[in-house]
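sanity check both lines:
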Amino acid sequence: MARSALSRDEVLDTAAALVKEHGPAALTMRRLAAELGTAVTSIYWHVGNRESLLDALVDRTVTDLGTIRPRGATPAERMVSVARAMRRSLRERPHLVAMVHERGLTERMFLPAQRALVHEAHAAGLRGADAARAVRAVQFQVVGYVLVERNRERSPAQSPGEEELWREEPSTGSDPVLAEALAAPVDTEALFTESVRALVEGLLAGARTP
């Protein structure tokens, strides 16, 4: 028996979950109806056809990335918090972000985060080209890092792996702690935070707070 109550938000939530887990190709109106326990015609009534549904998911993704809010006591801390939130958002919804990109809305998606970074760059005393450079550097660091992470995750198993190679590397003989650290699994969250913090502190070094 088809359910009697269904909201547009529930349709979009379920559609987004399907795309996140299986990719856009898995999102069919029939499968979505089955997930919701309703008739296909009910979904059409709420969101239109499949293309309209995909457009709505793209719009929602753009809006979601616009909810990033800086946290921290200093401009540097707040810029790092924006970068971490951007990375988290991109990693949580790769298929949806790809759909945004395919529709030519990537710059619009990043605009709210850029505005937040501009605000903090100004608070730190940067202006003009220096502020723009800081915003771009942080954005590129986030996007580049996420791409590297996804490439590592999707690459085939390596043999020998990084751990084996560094354990056997003769150049680290005088620095066994280095060899051990490079042979250990990578804490990507900690590495990202450390690298973006160093980047931000370097960009803001010498800036005069108004």
User: Anything to note?
Assistant: The domain at 70-204 is CATH 1.10.357.10 (Tetracycline Repressor; domain 2). The mean pLDDT is 89. Residues 172 and 178 are 7 Å apart (CA to CA).
